[in-house]
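Handout, section B. The chain below has 317 residues.
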Amino acid sequence: MHKIVFLDAATLAEGVQLPRPDFPHQWTNHSATAPDQIVARAAEADIVVTNKVRIGAEQIAALPGLRLIAAAATGYDNIDVDAARARGIAVTNIRAYSVDSVPEHTFALILALQRQILPYVADVRAGQWQASGQFAFHTHKIHDLHGKRLGLFGSGALGQKVAALAAAFGMETVFAGRKGEKARPGTLDFDEVLATSNVISLHCPLNATTENMIGWAEFSALRRKPLLINTARGGLVDEEALERALDAGLVAGAGIDVTRPEPPPADSAIMRLARRPNVLVTPHVAWASLESQQTLADQLGAVLASFVKGERMNRLD
């Protein structure tokens, strides 16, 4: 019988139906798991499911019966894949489950910032419409998306869906090549996309080559005072550099769904940014439509069944 432990099941919303594998198993859910609880909770498990709980080399070494670490997410930077591989432990993730949710959230942030939705709503609630005496009042500058250049950093399923949505708004979409490398066919140089985009949206993984990909040097090279949207990973952007760039007027605004760490400390740069009228910070929910979460759970079930059958669905090792 396979023993399955989900270390942070509360990362999925109430109402999402977790899989019921058709192979003999015992499934245990923990709402959340602290670092010092991982080994004890997973001691008898051969399959561990984690969304954001970090499983490093130390935990892997202490779990000799472990055979599979299944990330209940696309990102797997919280798992030491090399350490798992060295001990013959399989690692899997979930793919293309939020291809509607994340792009829709991306555009919700873009539109809210570009159309000044929240500031105008706040003005109406404060009675400024009546005080103006006009049928409309213009306390915040609104801009159209039509004809603007959208620079996408990441050309996978999410980036491609964002590009498709952008086309419906009449935007020009370009994909950025990798930083410090010659642009591949279908992309433009990293620096050119930064310099010429009206909206910059990040859809790439966090790894050694993308960490702090957008820092002060990159902000200093911006020419068009773009919006910056990050629904990918917090570590892609130097948050203190973003704060400085906003102060300097190099960035028109920012929509941030991901931070590092999560949740961010109350005195962090990102929480200072969250209080600005031209910054929207959401709590890592771009992926989290109920439809998207159920797709994730269903695919998790398929991944577990595949592993038990000796197949390699979504394998990372």
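Note. The longest helix spans residues 290-308. Compare this with the example in section A.
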